[in-house]
């Protein structure tokens, strides 16, 4: 019998935006996913020097953003883990929790290009496939290069090119510009209500 399929969408989500949601919905359809799990990062090692919004705020925004989509759910496994959070620990844990699922860890091309700097990156492939989605017009053809041993575990999907990033959203809020249609209405309201991003420190800028 065919295994159920799960997408894993990890991110800082500072804040979650329509780019994340469109990507998740697109791949969920293309790969007949039964479930897409959004995992807000706890203390991401690659963003140590950057000021990140309070984790409970990032969690709430994801919760609001995915409400109403019966395939989307959220996990606290990284938020509740002490210390730095590494993807290898997350996919291992997910594999224990959902052994019956075929898994696809979804990541933008920009994130994939950093993969070799991640802790035990080779072991990640023991627990999940990786699904790379387009983040620019010119996704290069050689994206698999250097990953010869893992080719069968790497999927590349041309998704609509969506020029939205959390960095741009934070900057727009700080400049008092509209973020309407870039994030779901509930996320926009949450940001306003809680006065997030109105006074960015330098370190909070340009995370992309
Ligand atoms: P920041 O600007 O703060 O880095 P971001 O927009 O890149 O934020 P992240 O939370 O860092 O968002 O991204 C989580 C995952 O979603 C990463 O794998 C990233 O590549 C992917 N992603 C984010 N935005 C897009 C987009 N517009 N198109 C495709 N993938 C995206
Ligand atoms: Mg990013």
How is this structure best described in words?
The chain is of the alpha/beta class. The protein has a single domain (5-163), classed as Rossmann fold (3-Layer(aba) Sandwich). It contains 7 helices and 6 strands; from the N terminus they run βαβαβαβααββαα. The protein has helices at 18-30, 55-66, 87-97, 109-112, 121-127, 166-174, 185-193, and strands at 5-11, 35-40, 72-74, 102-108, 129-133, 154-157. A 6-stranded parallel beta sheet has the order 3-2-1-4-5-6. Helix 2 runs antiparallel to helix 7 (185-193). The radius of gyration is 17 Å and the shape is globular. The termini are far apart. The model has no long low-confidence stretch (mean pLDDT 91). Magnesium ion binds next to loops. Keywords: ATP-binding, Hydrolase, Iron, Metal-binding, NAD, Nucleotide-binding, Nucleotidyltransferase, Pyridine nucleotide biosynthesis, Transferase. Belongs to the NadD family. Catalyzes the reversible adenylation of nicotinate mononucleotide (NaMN) to nicotinic acid adenine dinucleotide (NaAD).
């Amino acid at each position: 019998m065919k295994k159920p399929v799960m997408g894993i969408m990890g991110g800082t989500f500072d804040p979650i935006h329509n780019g994340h949601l469109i990507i998740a919905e697109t791949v969920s359809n293309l790969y007949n996913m039964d479930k897409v799990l959004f995992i807000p990062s706890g203390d991401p090692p690659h963003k140590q020097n950057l000021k990140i919004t309070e984790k409970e705020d990032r969690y709430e925004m994801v919760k609001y953003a995915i409400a109403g989509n019966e395939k989307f759910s959220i996990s606290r496994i990284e938020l509740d883990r002490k210390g730095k959070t590494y993807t290898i620990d997350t996919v291992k844990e997910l594999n224990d929790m959902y052994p019956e699922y075929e898994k696809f860890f979804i990541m933008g091309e920009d994130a994939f290009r950093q993969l070799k700097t991640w802790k035990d990156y080779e072991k990640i492939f023991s627990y999940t496939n990786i699904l790379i989605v387009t983040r620019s017009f010119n996704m290069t053809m050689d994206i698999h290069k250097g990953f010869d041993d893992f080719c069968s575990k790497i999927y590349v999907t041309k998704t609509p090119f969506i020029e939205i990033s959390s960095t741009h959203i934070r900057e727009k809020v700080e400049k008092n510009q509209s973020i309407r249609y870039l994030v779901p209405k509930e996320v926009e309201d949450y940001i306003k209500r809680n006065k997030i991003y109105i006074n960015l420190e330098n370190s909070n800028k340009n995370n992309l």
